[in-house]
Structures are given as structure tokens and as C-alpha cells.
Amino acid sequence: MKPEEGARKQVEIYKGMSGKERLKIAFEMWEVAFAQVKASEKSLNPNLSEKEVERRARQRMTDGAIRGS
Fold it and tell me: Are 57 and 69 a contacting pair, CB within 8 Å?
């Protein structure tokens, strides 16, 4: 299957889902991406505390929109 065909099929699957189901998938995708960004921060900065790793990861994921703890 070509990537374009797969993307069209995925869109059709999403269209058949309820808003609640699609929102759940979006949150799950965010969590996967956040875990990957945290792993990247840990790899790049092994001496950082977990709190600082999470802060930096949130900042990267939001293009700097979230700056707090």
C-alpha cells in the first residue's frame, strides 16, 4: 500500500469514530510524542533532574508556550 492510500484509509477510519474516540487517540499520540521528547532530553542532558527534563520537554512540545514548572 502506498503512503497516500494508507493516509486516506486512516482518515476514513477516523471519520467512523466518535469525537470521544478521536480525542482519546489524540491524547495517546501526545503521550507517545512526549515520552520520545523526554527521552531525547535525557539523552542530550543526562545530568538534568526529572523535573527539568519534563519542563524542557513540555517547552519543546509547545514551542515554548508552556514555560512554568
Answer: no
